[in-house]
Design a protein that fits this description.
The structure holds 2 protein chains of 2 kinds.
Chain A: E1 4-13, E2 16-26, E3 31-35, H1 42-50, E4 57-62, E5 65-66, E6 77-80, H2 92-102, H3 107-120, H4 136-148, E7 154-158, H5 166-183, E8 186-191, H6 194-200, E9 203-208, E10 211-216, H7 218-223, H8 228-233, E11 240-246, E12 252-255, E13 260-262, E14 274-280, E15 286-288, E16 297-308, E17 313-319, E18 322-328, E19 339-344, E20 350-353
Parallel strand pairs in A: 3-8, 3-9, 6-7, 7-8
Antiparallel strand pairs in A: 1-2, 1-4, 4-5, 9-10, 11-12, 11-14, 12-13, 14-20, 15-19, 16-17, 16-19, 17-18
Chain B: H1 11-39, E1 42-43, E2 52-53, H2 57-64, H3 66-98, H4 104-110, H5 119-129, H6 138-143, H7 154-182, H8 186-194, H9 199-210, H10 212-228, H11 231-237, H12 249-259, H13 263-290
Antiparallel strand pairs in B: 1-2
Classes of the chains: A alpha+beta, B mainly alpha.
Chain lengths: ~375, ~300
């Protein structure tokens, strides 16, 4: 059992606080991804779990033991570093076997185990090479093998794929996922790449400015972001965000240029009249021919340009002075400044409080877990 | 700004700009070296007059002189022991500073000072500190009379000049070791820590091997320096004595030439010393070129 309990953990560098009371549990065998922009404290948190960084406040437990004052070697974690951190003066075999050598494993056994692990990551032909003679992907594998060989209770990954090119990154992502399925070790993976996070995670922890914005399964975080920050960060593209005002009867909202959309008031018990931020997924929007009338709400938009994706296109347009992205499956016939009619289903409206940036909860959908207590306003909308 | 390289089309200006450096190098190195080379194959009268060509005679005299071999033996012992001492101490200090033990900023600053002290001043300081009757070390003689006296005991005298030389070299070595240690990526020692390696093991397995290029460089620099630049210390502390116990090669050149007025023998010895230093430098260049390149 290697559950990790993180209890109200804080980190100060001098007087600067970089982690503000983080609190969550990573279950045994779970693959948790900590996602956030650079400087959000995610790597610091990982390094505190590893024992490379002192814990300023709170406790971290691994498998039930408080590890705050324990050396890295006493914690039973293995780590894969962003720049691989391979020992340049040692061969691949020596790199992989170093941990065993330190632990005093006899040479014969060490050799067998190094070969076994090297085979699983496809490195058996390179055991005599020095890291300097390997490609980026091969170095990455050595780093993985070095972490695997001691059969650790916990795997820690500190942005291990960010130095690889795009294609290799996808390939290594798949291999890491496969590896986890086989080893079932508790894993914590830190990244700023939301695609990587969504595809790898059993559970996502989204961090921003040293606090947790949201914890949840990737699907839930995508479907119901807890705040405008998460909404804008998750998904490619992120949620379209538009400033709007709820009418006094609560049955409609008005955009900056006076366009109106109906609101199913019953869905939002806590909804009050006044300013809100409207969130719309690019995939939930449909472009309709002019004059097409349905029971849905429609918005008028001006066409800007389109991005080719291969599987479809991202239509960039402007609604009420704000940029908006619409995903279409086929190819579009529009030219610059064309007026588009966008169909919006009332069920797809996501509403956030303008002041705090927090999600306005829907009926039968609990407020997503967040540890954030300070109001947060997305800079672009402030 | 189209290219980084600036070329002079004006050859005269280029010549003028490099002339000061060329004149300096020529006047203070090539000319005296050439003169020494000439003298070493002639008999040079001490008070002027005609030179007499004698071929290898001077070298023969030097190599047949047991006093010269005594001087070589002492120089080698001196060079090796002060190199080991100076590099050992510097390495320990650099590791401490690199680990950022409390007060490391102050230490880093202070450790470099001794290098700024001129050799004769170092010699003078050590002469006072290690004076058998009045220095700090005289306490030893209180406890066991006669145990320390560099003026009478040759071994004590060698220890004294070795300590003084090592002390002045520690600062230089320290700076290089510290720079070497700090150029090792921190993640490497962190990775070793994750692999279960303790502080001392990490120093031995990761930091020292990666310091090897710095280490080789400093060995050659220290040896060369001990052979060539120890004159000031010897002259002030022991003046080659007692009974030629600290008669280093460089000091013997001085005493034979300027005290004994035998310029030819001194020139021949200079040439031997020069060849020794050149071969050390050659080894250094071979190491630098062949040194292991890490990623």
């Amino acid at each position: 059992m290697a559950r990790i309990d993180i209890r109200n953990v804080t980190k100060f560098y001098g007087k600067t606080q970089v982690v503000h009371g983080v609190d969550f549990t990573i279950n045994d065998g779970e693959f948790v991804v900590i996602l956030g922009p650079s400087g959000c404290g995610k790597s610091t948190l990982l390094r505190m779990i590893a024992g490379l960084e002192e814990i300023s406040g709170g406790t971290i437990c691994i498998a039930g033991d408080v590890v705050n004052d324990k050396e890295p070697r006493e914690r039973g974690c293995a780590m894969v570093f962003q720049n691989y951190a391979l020992y340049p003066h040692m061969s691949v075999a020596e790199n992989i076997g170093y941990g065993l050598k330190v632990a005093g494993v006899p040479k014969a056994e060490r050799l067998v185990r190094v070969q076994t692990v090297a085979r699983t990551v496809g490195l058996d032909a390179f055991l005599d090479r020095k890291p300097g003679q390997l490609s980026g992907g091969q170095r990455q594998r050595v780093a993985m093998a070095r972490a695997m060989i001691k059969e650790p209770k916990v795997f820690l990954f500190d942005e291990p794929l960010s130095n690889l090119d795009a294609k290799l990154r996808v390939q290594m992502r798949i291999e890491i996922r496969k590896l986890h399925q086989r080893l079932k070790a508790t894993s914590v993976f830190v990244t700023h790449d939301q695609v990587e996070a969504m595809t790898l995670a059993d559970r996502l922890v989204v961090m921003n400015k040293g606090v947790i914005e949201q914890i949840g399964a990737p699907k839930d975080v995508y479907d119901r972001p807890a705040s405008v920050f998460v909404a804008a960060f998750i998904g490619a593209p992120g949620l379209n965000l538009l400033p709007a005002t709820i009418s006094s009867d609560g049955h409609s909202l008005t955009l900056a240029d006076g366009q109106r959309l109906g609101v199913e008031t019953a869905r939002y018990p806590a909804l009050k009249p006044g300013p809100v931020t409207l969130g719309l997924r690019a995939e939930a929007l449909n472009i309709r021919p002019q004059g097409h009338v349905t029971g849905q709400g429609t918005l008028k938009a001006t066409f800007d340009f389109a991005e080719e994706l291969g599987v479809g296109q991202h239509i960039h347009a402007e609604v009420a002075g704000s940029p908006i992205v619409i995903h279409v499956d086929g190819r579009h016939p529009y030219t610059y400044n064309d007026v588009l009619s966008i169909e919006v289903s009332p069920r797809d409206l996501q509403l956030f409080e303008t002041k705090t940036g927090l999600r306005i909860a829907e009926v039968n959908a609990p407020v997503p877990a967040t540890s954030r207590d300070q109001p947060f306003v997305l800079d672009a909308l402030a | 700004m189209t290219g980084k390289r600036v070329t002079f089309s004006n050859t005269w200006l280029a010549g003028l700009l490099i002339a000061p450096q060329l004149i300096l190098v020529f006047t203070f190195f090539y000319w005296p070296a050439g003169e020494a080379l000439y003298w070493s194959f002639t008999l040079e009268p001490p008070f002027g007059g005609e030179n007499q060509w004698v071929g290898w005679q001077n070298f023969k005299t030097v190599f047949e002189d047991p006093l010269y071999w005594n001087s070589v033996r002492i120089s080698v012992i001196f060079a090796l022991s002060s190199t080991v001492l100076a590099m050992g101490i510097a390495l320990v200090l650099a590791v401490f500073v690199d680990r950022r033990l409390p007060g490391y900023q102050a230490y880093r600053f202070m450790y470099f000072w001794p290098y700024a002290v001129a050799a004769p001043a170092v010699g003078l300081a050590f002469r006072f500190i290690f004076a058998p009757d009045a220095g700090f070390v005289s306490a030893l003689n209180q406890w066991y009379p006669g145990i320390w006296n560099p003026a009478r005991n040759g071994v004590d005298a060698v220890i004294l000049i070795t300590l003084a030389n090592a002390w002045s070299m520690v600062a230089y070595n320290f700076i290089f070791f510290l720079a070497g240690l700090q150029s090792i990526p921190r993640t490497l020692t962190e990775a070793a820590a994750m692999d279960g390696s303790g502080v001392l093991r990490r120093i031995a397995d990761i930091q020292f091997p990666l310091l090897a290029p710095t280490f080789f460089f400093l060995v050659v620099i220290n040896l060369t320096d001990s052979f060539v630049n120890s004159f000031g210390i010897v002259d002030i502390t022991t003046a080659g004595g007692p009974a030629r116990a600290t008669d280093l090669m460089v000091y013997k050149i001085y005493s034979d030439g300027f005290k004994g007025k035998d310029y030819s023998l001194a020139a021949a010895q200079s040439l031997v010393l020069m060849l020794l230093v050149i071969s050390l430098t050659f080894i250094q260049f071979r190491f630098v070129e062949r040194r292991v390149h890490y990623s």
